[in-house]
Amino acid sequence: MDYRQLGRSGLRVSALALGTMTFGGRGGFAKTGATNTAGARRQLDLALDAGVNLIDTADVYSNGLSEEIVGQAIMGRRDRLLLATKARFSMGDGPNDAGLSRHHLIHACEASLRRLGTEYIDLYQVHEWDGQTPLEETLETLDTLVRSGKVRYVGCSNYAGWQLLKALGTSDRYGYQRFISQQIYYSLQARDAEYELIPAALDQNLGVLVWSPLAGGLLTGKYRRGQGTPEGTRRLAGWDEPPVRDEEQLYDTVDALVAIAAEHDVSPAQVALAWLLHKPAITSAIIGARTDEQLADNLGAAELHLSNEEQARLDKVSALPLLYPYWHQVQTAADRLSTADLTLLGPHVRH
Fold first, then answer.
1. Do the beta carbons of residue 249 and residue 317 sit within 8 Å?
2. Catalytic residues, which ones?
């Protein structure tokens, strides 16, 4: 297992992390899985044995049940791992039971600590943007949680580029704890993050944790052109995240994954994960699974190395269109592009 520095912090995290959205199966999250405590302990055993040291959860997963199961599964081995959780979404019916206000964040953090059975959270992440709470209030509260010892580091998730940079600038202005990472959706199925979030991570030295790196199972090889939705998948259960905007490109990408996987005698899922782990700025891919067999297979991606030609083949088949202002920058600013710029524009610049 490879261990990578998480942004500008001193923290080193495994290139693969264990996601726990499938733990619990309460409410709508039953569509993703229903792993109980015994199953969670088995998955944690598999992950730790493979060298995984980061466990990611959230208070909203199964309305707190995922955190409770994680807390039971890590009992007696808390010091062997790093624990990440998130807050922002609604955890009740009251007007202050959601968002990133000081009131909700402090309450949410203390509730997560109780459910997880721990005295501190290694990485506390705001799960989504809150455009109605002043950033100063949110960031000052996170700063307080760090200084109180309840939280070690803070990060964000699902921010747009301008929101991310505004948050970092606000932290720098007031001397608050800075986000060390962002958790984002990024995969061969949808590389939208390459427009702003990946360049921003490189420019600002942020760690990047990737959720749903297999696109909710779309990149596992189960979904093939003309074959319909497979039995036993979350899509068949009605889970529609992430959206599919270009079905033909998706199937072309899956075809390429299947072909490359056959050449290595591995699964398409391992190829998709290996591609991601070799992309700029990526710190860790968060993998979750309904079964122990799926998890064991995904963990194998840590040992898979693709050739430059294979990476390029997957890059080409899943390529993004250049939106404005990027096509204009390729035409007029190619003489003064930074490393961050080139993560998106490099393949389009004539050398």
1. yes
2. 61
For 102-170, the DSSP string reads HHHHHHHHHHHHHHHT-S-EEEEEE-S--TTS-HHHHHHHHHHHHHTTSEEEEEEES--HHHHHHHHHH
* Phi, psi (deg, nearest 5) at residue 118: -135, 160
Residue type for position 99: G
Length of the chain: 351
Average pLDDT, the chain: 95
Angle, to 10 degrees, between the axis of helix 268-277 and the axis of helix 292-299?
Answer: 50
Q: Measured between alpha carbons, how far is residue 265 from residues 170, 187, 260, 304 in Å?
A: 49, 22, 9, 11
**Whether 251 and 348 share a structural domain:** no
Q: Which residue has the tokens 């009605």?
A: 238
Q: What's the pLDDT band for 205 if we cut at 50, 70, 90? A: very high
Domain extent for 326: 321-351
**C-alpha separations of 15 from 215, 281, 328 in Å:** 18, 12, 35
Phi/psi zone of residue 212: left (φ > 0), alpha (ψ -120 to 50 degrees), beta? Answer: left
- Whether 85 and 58 have beta carbons less than 8 Å apart is answered as yes
Alpha helices, DSSP H, located in the chain: 37-49, 65-73, 102-116, 135-147, 161-174, 197-204, 247-264, 268-277, 292-299, 308-317, 326-332, 339-345
pLDDT interval class at 350 (50, 70, 90) = confident
> Over the stretch 305-334, which tens digit does the pLDDT of each residue have?
999 999 999 999 999 999 999 999 999 999
Confidence of residue 232 (pLDDT cuts 50, 70, 90): low
Return the sign of the alpha-carbon dihedral for residues 264, 276, 283, 76: negative
**CB 55, CB 75: distance < 8 Å:** no
250 with 346, same domain: the answer is: no
Domain count, the chain: 2
Same domain for 162 and 83: yes
